[in-house]
Amino acid sequence: MRFKRGRGNGSARDEIYINLASLIDIIFVLLLFFVVTTTFTRENQLKIQLPEAGVHNPVTSANIDRLEITISSDGKYAVNGRVLPQATEDNLTEALQAESKGNKDVPVLVTADANARYQAIITAMSAAGQMGFSKLRLATVESEH
User: Fold this and answer.
1) Which residues are registered as beta bridge partners of 137?
2) What's the CATH number where 118 sits?
């Protein structure tokens, strides 16, 4: 009994190939599984200690052309010793504009009480940054070590 071979005279071999569609589907499902089951550490669970200033680099009194924003423990602002009537960002911006007389190259020193709210400090830095002041310093206590 003679069986016919597929094509022509039988000298050509059938091409063998692997269907990759199902392999790609399996890899996609595995990737999705690993993405969904991965856990990430939360940074808010870290205990941190805020640093002290180790380098003594004081602002000298010879630098008269400077702005000093003082923040009290209850969140009140003072610009160059003049207490603002209300502790708002708009009032702080107006006071900075009046004291700087439009000069954006004046250094700004932020002096805040140790018990001042962090938001009050950020508001002062934000107001100075939005006005275009680029020389910003934070007053710290020199470490005792």
Assistant:
1) 109
2) 3.30.420.270
